[in-house]
Amino acid sequence: MSESNQTDLSRxxxxxxxxxxxxxxxxxxxxxxxxAAEARNLDQPASSDVRWGMLIDTNKCESxxxxxxxxxxxxxxWGGENSNEKLSAPEQKVQWIRKVDLKDxxxxxxxxxxxxxxHCESAPCVDVCPTTASMRRDDGIVxxxxxxxxxxxxxxxxxxxxxxxxxxxxLEDQKPHMPRGKGTVEACTLCVHKLDxxxxxxxxxxxxxxxxxxxxxINDENSDIAQQLKRHKTSQIRADLGLNxxxxxxxx
Amino acid sequence: MKPVRxxxxxxxxxLLLITLVPSAIAEVGPTIPKPIKGKQCVAETSDMRxxxxxxxxxxxVEALRQGVRTKQYSLKECLECHVPAKGEETTAESxxxxxxxxxxxxxxxxxxxxxxxxxEPLDDKSAQGHPVATPAMNAMGRxxxxxxxxxxxxxxxxxxxxx
Lengths: 252, 163
Known about the structure:
A: alpha+beta, Alpha-Beta Plaits, B: 53% helix
C-alpha cells in the first residue's frame, strides 16, 4: 500500500490551492459561472487535494425531527426493525448518528443538532487502533476497515464524540454497498459510497428538509460548503482538542 | 508370448480407465450453478479459479482504504452475475456458487458474515442486464464498460502487451 499523504488543512495551503483551482467564467457583469468540481475517476485513489466535510446549521435544525437519523438507518441498514440488533441492550445499540438537544440552563435557550463521526484530521480513533483498521482516507473520510478490525473497541473509548458503535449481534441482509458484521466497530462513513459515485451528497443531507446539512469538498473554494464556511462563523465541537474536524457547526 | 499378453492387459486397463474416469469425476466434483447473467467472467475461468482470492483481496484494500472503485474484481459485482437478486426466481442451487466449491475444497468462507449475500433488485429499468450501472452512474454518464473492454484496458493486460 502506498504511503498515505495526510490532508493538511493549514491556512496557507488552503489559500494556495483555492487560488490554483478557482476557474471562473464571467457571463455578464456581476454574474460568475463556477466550473463544477471535476469528479474523481473511479480507478484513481482518493486524493488529499479533496477534503470532504459537512456543515450543520443548528439554527435550521429542529428539535424532535429525526429525518437525518432515519435516512441514515435506511441507507446503511443499521438499527432495522427486523434486525437482530434489537436484541442488544439499549445502551449498546448501534447508533451512527444521533440527535442531541442542548439547553442553556441560565437562559433556557434550547438547540438541537445531529452528532456523528466528525471525520477529524488528527483522529484519536486512528491513533489508538492496534491493527490500522481505524483509518483516515486521503480525502479526509475516517473509516473502519472491518477486514482488520478485531473488535477491541479502543477507538470507541478514544473518540471524544462517542461516534462509534460495536455490533453485538450476528447480522444478515446487509446492504450490498455497506457490509456490516458482528464483532466489529462501525460509524458514519460520510456516505462514502455516494461520494465515490460522484453524487456529492449524503443520505442525511438529502433527507434534511430544512437544508441544515451541507456536504462538500472544503478544499474546493467554489463549493457551497467552502463558501458558507468562509462567509459564516462556524465552530467545531471540542475545538480545544485541536482535532480539526471535517464536520463543522453553525450557531453553537 | 508373455510380453504381448502383458501389453494387451495394460491396454485394456487403460481403455477401462479412459471410459470410467470422466463419469467418475463428474460425480465427485462440486456442483457449480450456472451464472445468472453474462457468458464470460472478468478474467479467464482458469485464472479466476486459481487467483480469485488474490484479486478480491487486492481490490478490497484498494477500494476501502484508497477509494479505488473499479468493478472488475469487486465482490459485489461477482454476486451480480452469480446470485439472483432479491425477489428473483431462485432454485436450491442458485446462489451457492461460492459456497459449493469452498465446501468441496474445505476452505472456510467468511465474506458473507458481513457482506450482502444477494444483489439488490434493479429499480432502474434502463440499467437492466449486465454489467450493472447505478442510477447515479447513469446520471453521471459513466456507464459501466463491458467486461471485454475492462479486461482489454486493465493494467495487467496492458503490462502483458507491453512485454
